[in-house]
Amino acid sequence: MSKEKEIRVLYLDDEPANLNAFRASFRREFEVRITSNGEEALELLGSFKPQIVFSDQRMPGMNGTEFLAKVHALRPHTIRVLITAYTDADEIIKAVNIGRIYRFISKPWIEEDLRQTILNGHDIYTTRQSLVEKVEELEKTNEELNKFIYSASHDLRAPLMSILGVVKLSELDPMDESAHNLFQMIESSVVRMDTFISSIIEYYQNSRSVQELQEIDFAELVDEVRENLKFFEGANEIQFDVQIDPCPDFVTDLFRLRIVLSNLMSNAMKYQRLDVHEHRVGIQVLCKEDSVDLVVEDNGTGIADDQQALVFNMFHRADAKKSGSGIGLYIVKEALEKLSGSIELRSIPDQGTTFTCSIPNLKK
């Protein structure tokens, strides 16, 4: 079958002479169906599945504009063409707005004009269909990839937690200094790996989870995050300075807010300076009329000026000497965007860094 014969065309007109002329002109090139009845034409949409539909405008009962509007509702990718002997501007505008037509063709129509309309319309139809198929394929691939990442991440965490448990048990028994150092290295590596895997899970959940709003108890949240980070390397050497304003009736997504606070606090703990004795992390919750400012600051290594604009990019690491995935601040920014919030960075190398998150109250 030729390419032209693969093109299916439906023509609706209440004048038998027009129908017969259309079929005689194009039946050898295209698969053609003709009808003078709008309801029959709608039935042919399901059985014949035309790629291009022509309709006369002035029809008894259901006119061409109304018919093509129904075609759009039933088969939105079908190319719709209106044929009319009238040039009323209001009718043309109505046909465009309601029928979503591809072209107007004036009566009496010219055979070559219709032929070119069919060929061009078919090209547009196949392009649209190809795009739809590619989008569906991409969505399927993306969904499968997300499921794989989430499943693999959880499967990887289980053996890591087993290793960490064995390391913790071994520390209860006497051992020489060399063995102790080796076990500390194992523990540090396991914690880093688990932190990276947790970041992947957080990224997946943040991108997929539906927003669940609830009232926030900031003191409880800060305590929870600190407890989760207590095994972080050097956590016992850090002095926390926590100041929380009373924020009654503040509502947002707790899951995403926890992601933001956890990543900012772990970063503040990770990038401490080795040449100072006092390692400090400050956390402030400042309540405003319709929002909250969440401030996390440290007296750590700071971020170089030329790196500050890049730290929110995925996998960017401002300090190559420090271990890390470079995904944490990217997730923070993504989570804040889901909360309709924003983040600002102020940092001075060798003095410290301050992140200020502005988070709107989503209470309705």
Could you give the topology of this structure?
Blueprint: E1 8-12, H1 16-26, E2 31-35, H2 38-47, E3 52-56, H3 64-74, E4 79-84, H4 89-99, E5 103-106, H5 111-170, H6 177-208, E6 213-215, H7 218-228, E7 238-244, E8 251-253, H8 254-270, E9 279-287, E10 291-298, H9 328-338, E11 342-348, E12 352-360
List keywords for this structure.
2 domains, 12 strands, Rossmann fold, alpha/beta, elongated, single chain, 364 residues, Heat Shock Protein 90, 9 helices
Quick overview:
With 364 residues, the protein is of the alpha/beta class. It has nine helices and twelve strands.
Structural features, described:
With 364 residues, the chain is of the alpha/beta class. It has two domains: 4-109, Rossmann fold (3-Layer(aba) Sandwich), CATH 3.40.50.2300; 211-364, Heat Shock Protein 90 (2-Layer Sandwich), CATH 3.30.565.10. It has nine helices and twelve strands. The protein has helices at 16-26, 38-47, 64-74, 89-99, 111-170, 177-208, 218-228, 254-270, 328-338, and strands spanning 8-12, 31-35, 52-56, 79-84, 103-106, 213-215, 238-244, 251-253, 279-287, 291-298, 342-348, 352-360. A five-stranded parallel β-sheet has the order 2-1-3-4-5, sandwiched between helices. The protein has a five-stranded mixed β-sheet with strand order 7-9-10-12-11, with helices on one face. It has a two-stranded antiparallel sheet with strand order 6-8. Helix 8 packs antiparallel against helix 9 (328-338). It is elongated. It starts with 7 loop residues before the first strand and ends with a strand. The model has no long low-confidence stretch (mean pLDDT 85).
